[in-house]
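Reviewer 2 asked us to include a model.

Predict the structure of this chain.
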Amino acid sequence: MSDTRRRVKVYTLNEDRQWDDRGTGHVSSSYVEELKGMSLLVRAESDGSLLLESKINPNTAYQKQQDTLIVWSEAENYDLALSFQEKAGCDEIWEKICQVQGKDPSVEVTQDLIDESEEERFEDMPETSHLIDLPTCELSKLEEIADLVTSVLSSPIRREKLALALENEGYIKKLLQLFQACEDLENSEGLHHLYEIIRGILFLNKATLFEVMFSDECIMDVVGCLEYDPALAQPKRHREFLTKTAKFKEVIPITDSELRQKIHQTYRVQYIQDIILPTPSVFEENFLSTLTSFIFFNKVEIVSMLQEDEKFLSEVFAQLTDEATDDDKRRELVNFFKEFCAFSQTLQPQNRDAFFKTLAKLGILPALEIVMGMDDLQVRSAATDIFSYLVEFSPSMVREFVMQEAQQSDDDILLINVVIEQMICDTDPELGGAVQLMGLLRTLIDPENMLATTNKTEKSEFLNFFYNHCMHVLTAPLLTNTSEDKCEKDNILGSNKTNTICPDNYQTAQLLALILELLTFCVEHHTYHIKNYIMNKDLLRRVLVLMNSKHTFLALCALRFMRRIIGLKDEFYNRYITKGNLFEPVINALLDNGTRYNLLNSAVVELFEFIRVEDIKSLTAHIVENFYKALESIEYVQTFKGLKTKYEQEKDRQNQKLNSVPSILRSNRFRRDAKALEDDEEMWFNEDDDEEGKAVVIPIEKSKTEDDFPDSYEKFMETKKGTKILNFHIVLTFLVKQSDSLSTTNARIPACLPTCLGKSGQAKESEDKENLPKRTSSGGFKFTFSHSPSAANGTNSANSKSVVAQTTSASSNGSSSKTTNLTASVTATKGSLVGLVDYPDDEEEDEEEESSPRKRPRLGS
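Predicted model (structure tokens):
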């Protein structure tokens, strides 16, 4: 495999001073017998042919540019360049060249002497004389001067000598005098030559020449020369723009004349680089590196001088926040700070830190809070740009400010709430400003850039603040547009859909999509806070209303929000989803989509595929039990059949576990006569009252509104824990107590399991026959348990498939209450483990769901 470090492109300079690509290959340095010395060899990577064979001449000036470029001249009009793919390869070959010439590899130019042709030409001249004679500066010599300037650009040494000659003789000012004469005489040919001369002098890349050319005395004439490009039919009017159109505005009078001069100079030079000069080629970029540096250091100097003038900045802040300041003045002040912050990006990190700390100290954030709430669109836009600089610099600084502010101000005027309101109220149809503000909000609430110290945790403090003071502002448009009242107004007359229809205004849809994107980010990164908020506001139900939007991108955003929640595989979320029947709008959207194969279809199928692959049992059971009939016709993917298979496998496993309990108790060796059983039974219940009086038992005879659904996650987990303890207690009772005393009387054994002990239970024959388990063909007993609210309350439902045995008030030995509670706790969902507690919905909701499980007709159902 070829070494990429040695991979190069070979270029030669043609007669038009343009670089021609001669091919790509791999370079090496080796001794060539024919050339009698070390040479550079480049072989083509395509066929291995020789692209270049050049002897490293001890007197040739090689120049390294941009870390990956080596340029040299082999003859007066034959310049070569190697452009390396990697810096390491360039450094390696550069070291070989320097080794042959006996030079230090740290230099960028290997020779301080002129090439051979120049040496012959000037060999009789004293060393102190200029090596390049400049023609007389007059109109008739302009063409000769232009040719000279253009010819030296390919040779670094000759460029250096020409620059020195121009500097020493004050030649530039003489040329500019000629420009004025040519313009007065309307000498087009001379003006075209002057364009070539001035452009060539800029490419000499010498800071000392720039100081002369960009001085107040010369710069406008330099711009004038660059207007007369020979390639243009008519000259440009750059000077007219700089003097008449571009206006320098002083928001506060600048008394420092040096600072004023720097600001003017920097603007004009930036204009020359960005507007007047053509885009440089890859080999000309290095020619203007000094020009870029010139602008850079000017900006650094301007920022430093302004930053040190605290009186000036204090006055700017005072006027910015003063209510008496008129709108035009405030707009100029904000634009000044915007440009000021943009200049600061050129500073080194240490200087930039000092700059923003100075602004923070002077009160930039309170000032932004005022101007971001103004009606002027330009002011708000500029303030947003300034805010973005601050957030990018230090999110922690902004967070600290808003938390301190919350202790003194109302929620409505908090900086973050002002930002959120600006996002919501963006008038741009494409919401460009809202997108920018949403990105800033995401940066502020991102835990990844929050600091944790020994004394405090910024993450917990700020997130508590955000969810208490700001989240309601962010979600307000979402909750408003998905409320029942709003959606009733937007319902389509005559539609057969009973679900709510979200607003179809495109701009509103765009805004809701942005809010959902931010909320999805919160689900991924804020576990505790967002979970509480979703539960308290029933947020997912409201979000899924948007599945009915005609804007597919908004429906996908709602689906993505739910997908992130399910992706957490949090049983608390799963319980919330199944309890609220929140898959219904998703499945309706899939069915309404019909046979269209689009992104919505794929996203919904992927959601269910994730549940199948991850084997989320609670969601699988809910989907199959409630929606499989509507989904079984979808056969182009195996997702839904796979869910049914998973569900049936799990159901079989639970049935096996359930049936294993009575099978242990069927052994005849535990039988004892009824008299002994009664005595032991009395003793066991007496002990149980003393020892087990504080056992965890789930009463379900209470009001349903109290036990419907736990108010908090902690209560839910505590309830589940209690249920498991109870189930263990029931099974343990059979395994341990029955070895000493066994009876069929229901006073001692929970009512749902009394007759599974065999045929010796004569005392129980008068009990209700519905409480008897059915004997299977293998001789065991089959138990069925109800999951419906009516069964759990002791009523017989006409369509119930299972029965829960109930003990009556006539239960013997006064143990009716204990037995009833134990019985009630052993209810379970269809085919699930004994001991899973069902929290029924409110009675009205249950009746509605039993009669009409789907709120809208489904395709293919």
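The chain has a mean pLDDT of 75. The longest strand covers residues 19-32. We have added this to the supplementary material.
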